[in-house]
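Worked example

This section walks through a single chain of length 340. The input is the sequence exactly as stored; nothing has been trimmed or padded.
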Amino acid sequence: MTDAIPLKRIGRTDLRVPELGMGVAHLGGMYGFVPTEQSRATLQAAWDGGVRFYDTAPWYGRGLSEHRLGDFLIDKPRDEVIVTTKIGRCLVRPADPAGFDRAPWPGGLNFDIRFSYSYDAVMRSYEDSLQRLATDRIDALLIHDPDPVVHGEHFATRMHELETGGIRALEELKRTGQIRAIGMGINTEAALTEVVPRVPLDFLIIAMPYTLLDQSALSTMAWLQDKGTSIVIGAPYASGILVTGPVPGARYAYQPASEAVLEKTRRIAAVCAAHGTSLPAAALRFCLAHPAVAAIIPGSARPEEVTATLGTYATPVPAALWQELKSTGLIDAASPVPEA
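Given that input, the structure is written out below as tokens.
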């Protein structure tokens, strides 16, 4: 069991979240099939360790992640839990169920997706998520993947849907007390700069542009902080390599790490070892040090991974480590770091 996990406020709302939560994408089968028993044991390990903030999405496992989280939480005290999910993809029956390809979710559910950020699509997605999560409320909804890389030639159309309908639906849900905050979940610096300024937000989940390996989002994060917009770091382990280290097959940005990333990770890991700390501990503490960051939500697919993260979260990191990482150029000199 961890000590009490501190709460931090989301934007200017009344929503406060524990600074350590859990991303539940892995339980939809992000990197491989996850058996039901393993999924439940993973969630139980998180609950037993004091985790009370869970983030999911319809896309994760094509509905499977939401179903599994809802099933686990169904007999837990709802007032003790913060649950966030996302809009942007509605799940629909495939035209050819027998021949449907569920990739990239091994073991995911047999549902196709329909992208839309319109008013009606947001409301449908919200109501569908309530049922999959077996709850009568969701604490916050996030606009999922409004990224030119994701939408290609449809990007302008979908941003028009968002600006003219989707954001109106989200604001209505917030105004009527059905959700407590509006967020956006993104993976790239391009989405940060091109999409975020278009709509009013209380917080963002940023997956890759701010980790121990990449601080490209620093200037945008300062702008968000000035606006009172909070940040949740969705991939503090940079999708795996900051846990596994630079081993063969290590993942970075959801794919095999390049040699340049492997080499940078080796150098950071060597500095960590010289200061008697671990790479994962430095990764978590680094993200939490930024004043705009309200929480981190590392994902896990096995109970032992949850236990390891809880232990890592509780591990102090020496101040001299940050000084060396900055002096050697391994992290941006302007990056906030934990106080001694």
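What to look for: The longest strand covers residues 82-87.
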